[in-house]
Write a structure and sequence with these properties.
heterotrimer; A alpha+beta (about 260); B mainly alpha (about 240); C alpha/beta (about 650); A: alpha+beta; Ubiquitin-like (UB roll); Fumarate Reductase Iron-sulfur Protein, Chain B, domain 2; 5-stranded mixed β-sheet; C: about 650 residues; alpha/beta; Flavocytochrome C3, Chain A, domain 1; Methane Monooxygenase Hydroxylase, Chain G, domain 1; 5-stranded parallel β-sheet
């Protein structure tokens, strides 16, 4: 593919720490190659900020191949930017043209407080998993892997749900800051597998309770999460979560 | 888990919205079907007959109470959901492009609901209040001329009331049409959303539900909108 | 100090069983009182932390990422090997053991590899029980695929995201223990030193990367599960944060470093596109099952690849290795690509890439599909259309990723690929119990010098990480801790903690105090260039000697001219990176020294002085059949210890793929 160079204006959220009041700062970056990823543009910008004796922009990133879920920029009004099914780290500058202005903000959610600049604290997701996003099987307790056949359709559906990278784009995209896609994906994955059956009901109830405790909003079915999910996780898993909760809630005998 | 707990979570609150929504969807079918009887062009005879039935049947009276309870629940819970959801994002985005990922009306259920509520106040004031509470306190009862005799019983002539409200009066017609338009978008999202809330999302059924929702919203709202318009232009006699 | 590998007596197949039968145990009441520190939460760390907590130990787990789920194990694509023999194709524990020793070019410890093969089957059972959604057949049973040129189908997989699924399984087990209060999790924390008291590892010094605060943590034992050090090359398939710091601090505190020069260069990665490049992306090895690798026969070819006719293409792997063709092992394929590019046949703007072409596979599959539909004389367009569909089903996600990064459609034109640093077989030297030369200090997964010898086979890294964490350390650690039940928790006010903390603090303050003119990133890039050019795919004495000098000079420059903005007591990624690059600058030197001393070629280590007439790697078993374990004496001063490798079962032979 033909590549080209461009000059860009970046407007980036700068915030010293969790308590400080932040604001958008404007930067000019010149001679950006269309072959770069947007994080590499930030690398270059940071390099020049450091050379100028200024503080570089803090942002989360790690694997840079779209799987670890660390990167988390809200780019030009969309989590992970304009490309569908793409994480920030995989967003390449071919998506932009010379003279463009790019606005970059952190995820915005009460449950994801800003730590610095574009870095937010997503430990709420870990706590939701702690509430029940597992199968209680101690090491060594397992039976032979092939002793319980699993319908391939369910196994495949469980895998599709399990593809979640925990980046939080669903929360960032949702106008309600809801984490239902994240929770739905995990609850569904484990509910679809026979191994997850014994804890199926308590898992749904406990994870939903924790989700509420963290301050996420509730789902109003706009499906923005599915559209912005870099792994294309379906809102069918939110429906699945709803029905799991319904069954579990009605079945629960504690009063 | 207690009922309070069950209905108090993010999902439980949605159940309330969905269940009351389903009820209201059903109510609209009945309401619309009876009102559509004005189009028999029989001077409102069939319409008034069924309106009287609706207004006098004991079971329907009980259901009417239920309707108001559910409507209230839908409104109160809706407001609470909106407040809680707003609180989930205390700091907003400087730049947001939600149209890239969702429809405007799915994001505007609160606003559309509020518009419908405002319309509803006017609507109740026009028809329900005088027919139910006419004579109480300061409420003007329906006039004598608006009574008519049907099967040897006196009944309110709601048909005439409609004519009185709409014929040649542009303002109420505009309010009603705007109210119905809000209702259309509210239903277009709400119909399929309620199914999703109760866990029905399926490759085969969801497209059918979405189509059904579209047809339902369109038919109901076109019919509703056509009534004040027809009355305004005196198309129905 | 002598190296004692502590390999149990007895027949190879009985060693592990026998060890487990006689190992010392800790009773449940005592386990509660014993504290274990786990550094890193990848496959090895998460599985170890969870398993030990389940047994009753009090665990503290640390990771530098914002969540334990983001450790770089998550990026592994292809699969995990296990000797299940579900396919009835002749697989067995012995065969997996044999393949691994041979694949490692006879530079691994037989007893460890045998144990790895032995526990491999239980890993799959454990993962399935945790809800890991492996690929399945229509009958509901697990599916396998072949990998890395071995002759059996023993690789279990979950699409191209096996590492992710396995890690999420281990992560969920870990989070369960966090919820039960048995694991205390410290994310966004980095270990900056090991505390050694009376010769035993007794804790760590860690830094909270959010507040910058330095913390002391006591543990009766410390487990390093901190991964490999491929990022010493700057450009690699590793995550940006992957680093050697934890292992390096342990090394400086007395843990020997085993075979540091053994690096795996993966042949199929997306090539470097420019100076801005921050990392390289792997294209799964599975692509070589269907793709053909070639370069133009003419130097300075300007035509588009699809316009170059077959007779003007050099399918060099098929030409050089007719028996294995495009499926030669990773080290061989990587070197062959480098050879062509060095000769001037490379393609793309940088001329440092070769083509990986699916044209023939598309036609082949298209013809089969057309035949299935009853069309036995399909035209070109039909075959291409049908063939593309088959290729998309098999490799769709990889093709999509390639297109996102390069903007080129690999269905219509060949991929451009080039080798890249992927994995380090070297690591902290450990004995059979995974204990380093510091008692109480263990190394698991890629962080140890490992079971992969000089070259790792595909789908074996995941196997080793989980084997160490789930099934080895729970036994071997108990053997050590049984002797520690009378040791009460040592207060962190102990002078050894004080001293370690001061060392850490002084180093950070020194770094911040330099206030030079060059960024950390820039130093890292320069180090990477030295390493890649002189200690990369091909190494020679002259280059390595130069590299040692250049690294020393660069390190000196770093310590006098690095510029780190910001403050110590705040979230400061530049400072974190500076500490890591500082360690890479020491590590790189040791790698070159190790590469220099090993005057043979084996696996991923190719010394140009030691090759056959046809340019293949030539091992020197007479002189180098040992693990090189380096002891840190003082800055720039190491002592070599040798652990001889005795092959009682798999007798070394020259590998040939002709």
């Amino acid at each position: 593919m033909e590549h080209y160079h461009m000059n860009l204006t970046l407007k980036v959220w700068r915030q010293k720490d969790s308590k400080a009041k932040g604001n958008l700062e404007t930067y000019q970056v010149k001679d950006v190659s269309s072959e770069m990823s947007i994080l590499e543009v930030f690398d270059v910008l940071n390099e020049s900020l450091i050379n100028d004796g200024k503080e570089p922009i803090a942002f989360d990133h790690d694997c840079r191949e779209g799987i670890c879920g660390a990167c988390s920029m809200y780019i030009n009004g969309q989590p992970h930017g304009p490309w569908a099914k793409t994480t920030t780290c995989q967003l390449h500058m071919r998506a932009f043209k010379d003279g463009d202005t790019i606005v970059v903000e952190p995820w915005r959610s009460r449950a994801f407080p800003v730590i610095k600049d574009l870095v937010v604290d997503r430990s709420a997701f870990d706590r939701i998993i702690q509430a029940g996003g597992y199968i209680s099987v101690n090491t060594g307790n397992a039976v032979d892997a092939n002793s319980i056949p699993v319908d391939k359709r369910y196994a495949d559906a469980a895998f599709d749900a399990a593809a979640c990278i925990g980046c939080g784009a669903c929360v960032a995209a949702c106008k309600n800051g809801s984490a239902m896609l994240f929770v739905g994906a995990k609850v569904s994955q484990l509910a679809l597998l026979p191994q997850g059956e014994p804890e199926r009901e308590t898992r749904a109830l406990n994870m939903v309770a924790q989700m509420d405790k963290e301050g996420f909003g509730s789902c109003s079915n706009t499906y923005a999460c599915e559209a912005e999910c870099p792994k294309g996780i379906s809102v069918a898993y939110i429906a699945k979560l709803n029905s799991e909760y319904l069954h579990a809630g009605l079945n629960d005998s504690d009063s | 888990m207690t009922w309070k707990h069950f209905f108090g979570t993010a999902i439980g609150r949605k159940f309330t919205m969905g269940a009351t929504g389903f009820f209201l969807i059903t109510f609209l079918i009945v309401h619309c079907a009876i009102n559509a009887m004005i189009f028999f062009n029989d001077g409102g005879e069939t319409f008034n007959h069924w309106a009287k039935f609706m207004g006098t049947n004991l079971i329907l009276h009980v259901l009417e109470v239920g309707l108001f309870v559910f409507l209230l629940l839908h409104i109160v819970q809706g407001i609470m959901v909106v407040i809680k959801n707003k609180a989930a994002r205390p700091v907003g985005y400087a730049m947001s492009r939600p149209n890239r990922n969702s429809t405007w009306y799915s994001r505007s259920m609160g606003l559309l609901g509020t518009l419908i509520l405002l319309f509803l106040v006017v609507h109740l004031y026009h028809f329900w209040v005088p027919s139910r509470f006419g004579g109480l306190g300061n409420i003007t009862p329906l006039e004598e001329t608006q009574l008519f005799t049907y099967s040897n019983e006196e009944a309110h002539n709601l048909f005439q009331r409609m004519q009185m409200v709409f014929r040649g009066n542009l303002a109420p017609v505009v309010i009603y049409v705007l109210g119905v338009i809000s209702l259309f978008w509210h239903l277009l999202h709400g119909f399929q959303s309620a199914f999703q809330t109760f866990g029905l999302n399926h490759k085969r059924y969801t497209p059918i539900i979405k189509s059904a929702g579209f047809v339902y919203s369109l038919v109901i709202c076109l019919l509703f909108a056509s009534m004040p318009i027809a009355m305004y232009f005196d198309w129905v006699k | 100090m002598s190296l004692e590998a502590k390999i149990p007596e007895g027949a190879m197949a009985e060693k592990w069983t026998d060890y487990k039968g006689h190992v010392n145990l800790v009773n449940p009441a005592n386990k509660r009182k014993l504290e274990v520190i786990v550094i890193g939460t990848g496959l090895a760390g998460a599985s170890a932390a969870a398993s030990l907590a389940e047994m009753g130990y009090s665990v503290k787990a640390f990771c530098f990422q914002d969540s334990p789920r983001r450790a770089h194990s998550i990026a592994a694509q292809g699969g995990i090997n296990a000797a299940k023999n579900y396919q009835n194709d002749g697989d067995s524990v012995f065969r997996l053991f044999y393949d691994t020793v041979k694949g490692g070019d006879y530079r691994s410890r037989e007893a460890n590899v045998y144990r790895l093969a032995e526990v491999s089957a239980a890993i799959i059972d454990q993962c399935v029980a945790q809800g890991v959604p492996f690929a399945r057949e229509y009958g509901g049973l697990l599916s396998n695929r072949s990998f890395g040129g071995v002759q059996v189908q023993r690789t279990f997989y979950a699409a191209g995201q096996t590492g992710q699924q396995l890690l999420l399984g281990a992560y969920s087990a870990l989070e369960r223990q966090v919820a039960l209060g048995k694991v205390e999790m410290f994310s966004r924390h980095e270990m900056l030193d090991v505390v050694v008291i009376d010769g035993k590892a007794r804790g760590i010094i860690a830094r909270d990367l959010v507040s910058g605060k330095i913390e002391r943590h006591f543990g009766h034992a410390v487990l390093l599960c901190s991964g490999g050090y491929g990022n010493v090359f700057y450009l690699s398939t590793n995550a940006m944060g992957s680093n050697v710091t934890a292992a390096w601090k342990a090394h400086r505190k007395g843990a020997f470093f085993g075979n540091p020069c053994f690096t795996q260069i993966h042949p199929t990665c997306i090539p470097v596109s420019g100076d801005h490049q921050s990392k390289l992306t792997l294209m799964s090895e599975s692509l070589r099952n269907d793709g053909r690798i070639w370069v133009p026969k003419k130097k300075d070819e300007t035509r588009k690849p699809q316009d170059i006719p077959d007779e003007e293409r050099d399918y060099y792997l098929e030409r050089r290795y007719p028996a294995f063709g495009n499926l030669v092992p990773r080290d061989v394929a990587s070197r062959a690509a480098k050879e062509r590019c060095d000769e001037g046949y490379g393609v793309g703007t940088t001329k440092m890439a070769v083509y990986l072409d699916f044209k023939d596979a598309i036609i082949r599959y298209g013809k089969i599909e057309a035949g299935k539909a009853g069309n036995h004389n399909p035209d070109q367009d039909t075959m291409v259309t049908l063939g593309k569909k088959v290729v998309e089903e098999k490799y769709g996600n990889l093709f999509e990723m390639y297109e996102k990064i390069t903007g080129e459609n690999p269905y219509n034109q060949p991929m451009r690929i080039y080798p890249a640093v992927h994995y380090t077989m070297g690591g902290l030297w450990v004995d059979y119990e995974l204990q380093t030369t510091v008692p109480g200090l263990y190394a698991l997964g890629e962080a140890n010098f490992s079971d992969h010898g000089a070259n790792r086979l595909g789908a074996s890294a995941l196997m080793q990480g989980l084997a160490d964490g789930y099934f080895v350390i729970p036994y071997t650690l108990g053997n050590y801790l049984a002797g520690e039940i009378r040791t009460p928790a040592i207060p962190t006010s102990h002078p050894a903690f004080e001293e370690a903390e001061n060392t850490v603090r002084n180093r950070i303050e020194k770094l911040m105090g330099i206030k030079g003119t060059e960024s950390v990133e820039s130093f890292h890039k320069r180090l990477g260039k030295i390493m890649w050019n002189k200690c990369g795919m091909a190494r020679n004495e002259k280059g390595l000697k130069e590299a040692v000098e250049e690294i020393k000079a660069l390190r000196k420059e770093f310590w006098s001219n690095v510029r780190i903005p910001g403050e110590i007591n705040e979230f400061n990624p530049e400072l974190d990176k500076a500490g890591r690059v500082g360690d890479f600058l020491e590590m790189g030197e040791l790698m070159c020294i190790d590469a220099l001393h090993r005057r043979e070629s084996c696996g991923g280590h190719f010394r140009e002085e030691s090759q056959t007439d046809e340019g293949e790697a030539k091992r020197d078993d007479a002189n180098f059949s040992y693990v090189a374990a380096w002891e840190f004496k003082s800055d720039e001063n190491w002592e070599l210890h040798k652990e001889p490798l005795d092959f009682e079962i798999v007798k070394p032979t020259q590998r040939s793929y002709k």
